[in-house]
């Protein structure tokens, strides 16, 4: 079923469903969503221009003032750019907005964000591992396979280094996501890099204390080996097992950030 765009609910008589007058703020909020729908529905990307203010007002059935307020709000969020004498245009994706939104959602989630972050991260990481294995099965990806193998070897050499290993751990997960070729996966997982790295540091301290150092590297080895031979199912399963292992590690909570590893 095709969803109805937000602008379809904007009416030129300025009344709501029950006939009560909508405030300018309500209309501007709806117009903002209508503009987002327009950008999404028409697949507009960086540098693409939106229709002129007058055309948007006619299309949405609202005043030019309401449209200008909606455009200004989206410009303030970094979604579009407004240049004097020209129509508004779509800006490049600002990953800081994704990071801000996810960080806020994690902070407001029960348990300090750990469960929420793992619920978000686990299926995406597993999917990324699967796609990376499919991607590297091509004979043309020998340089990427070698780079991944070299990174794994470097991790093994740094296993006893409590500062270096978490850095390489973060690099590994980032590289697997990059190799997946899925930009959406990259955007979401990149958005949690900062809390993730801090959490990896916390978990390393927990593993040091409990004598568990090495188990996580064995899991990384299984993931990478499956990817390198193009075993999509094996890579996905190994990553899923790694995520379950991380989620089950009862690390002490740090107040500033969640705890995945």
From TrEMBL:
PANTHER family: GNTR FAMILY REGULATORY PROTEIN (PTHR43537:SF44), TRANSCRIPTIONAL REGULATOR, GNTR FAMILY (PTHR43537). Keywords: DNA-binding, Transcription, Transcription regulation. It comes from the Bacteria. InterPro entries: GntR_C, TF_FadR/GntR_C, Tscrpt_reg_HTH_GntR, WH-like_DNA-bd_sf, WH_DNA-bd_sf. Gene3D superfamilies: GntR ligand-binding domain-like, Winged helix-like DNA-binding domain superfamily/Winged helix DNA-binding domain. The keyword Secreted does not apply. The keyword Transcription regulation applies. This is FCD domain-containing protein. Residues 25-93 form the HTH gntR-type domain. It holds the Pfam family FCD.
């Amino acid at each position: 079923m095709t969803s109805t765009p937000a602008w379809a609910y904007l009416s030129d008589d300025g009344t709501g469903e029950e006939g009560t007058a909508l405030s300018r703020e309500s209309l501007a909020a709806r117009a903002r969503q209508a503009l987002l729908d327009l950008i999404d529905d028409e697949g507009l990307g960086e540098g693409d221009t939106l229709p002129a203010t007058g055309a948007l007002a006619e299309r949405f059935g609202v005043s030019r003032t309401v449209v200008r307020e909606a455009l200004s709000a989206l410009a303030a969020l970094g979604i579009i750019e407004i240049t004097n004498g020209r129509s508004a245009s779509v800006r490049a994706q600002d990953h800081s907005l994704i990071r801000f939104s996810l960080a806020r959602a994690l902070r407001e989630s029960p348990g300090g964000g750990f469960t929420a972050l793992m619920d978000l991260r686990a299926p995406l990481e597993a999917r990324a591992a699967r796609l990376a294995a499919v991607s590297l099965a091509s004979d043309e990806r020998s340089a990427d396979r070698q780079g991944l193998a070299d990174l794994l070897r470097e991790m093994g050499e740094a296993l006893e280094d409590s500062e270096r290993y978490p850095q390489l751990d973060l690099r590994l997960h980032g590289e697997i996501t990059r190799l997946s070729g899925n930009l959406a996966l990259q955007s979401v997982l990149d958005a949690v890099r900062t809390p993730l790295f801090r959490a990896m540091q916390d978990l390393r301290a927990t593993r040091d204390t409990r004598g568990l150092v090495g188990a996580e590297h064995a899991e990384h080895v299984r993931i990478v080996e499956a990817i390198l031979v193009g075993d999509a199912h094996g890579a996905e399963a190994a990553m899923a097992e790694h995520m379950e292992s991380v989620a089950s590690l009862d690390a002490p909570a740090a107040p500033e950030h969640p705890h995945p590893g």
